[in-house]
Write a structure and sequence with these properties.
The protein is of the alpha+beta class and 119 residues long. The protein contains three helices and four strands. Helix 1 packs parallel to helix 2 and helix 2 packs antiparallel against helix 3.
C-alpha cells in the first residue's frame, strides 16, 4: 500500500522519509522515477512524501510508482498527462488486479492434486 502526499515545494521526493536519490536498490528507484521522468518539469514545483508498507521491494516500488502517477494527474488535472501515462504503461494509473489463487484441498497448491493409481 502506498500513499502519496503532494504539496507545493522545490522538487523534494521522499519515500518513507528517505530521499529518492538515495533509495536502494537502484532498479526499484528507477522504476519509481518513471512517472517523474515522463512528467518533466512538473517535478520541480512540488514536494512529495510517499509512505509505503507491505509486500516486497519491487511490490513497494510499483505501489509508490502508481501513487506518484495518480497524485500528479490529480494535482495537475491534466488529461494530456493522464493519456501520456496510459500510453507509456497502463499500470502507472491502474493496479494489477491479479492475485494468488487460493489453495484447495487434495493437493499442495491451487491446482496440483495428489496422483491416483487405478491398478
Amino acid at each position: 500500500v502506498a500513499r502519496a502526499r503532494i504539496r507545493k515545494g522545490i522538487g523534494r521526493i521522499r519515500i518513507n522519509k528517505k530521499p529518492l536519490e538515495i533509495y536502494e536498490p537502484e532498479l526499484a528507484r528507477l522504476k519509481i522515477e518513471e512517472p517523474l521522468t515522463l512528467a518533466g518539469d512538473l517535478r520541480k514545483g512540488i514536494d512529495m512524501d510517499i509512505k509505503v508498507s507491505g509486500g516486497g521491494i519491487m511490490g513497494q516500488a510499483n505501489a509508490a510508482r502508481t501513487a506518484i502517477a495518480r497524485g500528479l494527474v490529480e494535482w495537475t488535472q491534466d488529461m494530456d498527462l493522464k493519456n501520456l501515462f496510459q500510453e507509456y504503461d497502463r499500470n502507472l494509473l491502474v493496479n494489477d488486479s491479479r492475485k494468488k489463487e487460493a489453495k484447495k484441498f487434495g493437493g499442495r497448491g491451487a491446482r496440483a492434486k495428489k496422483q491416483k493409481s487405478y491398478r
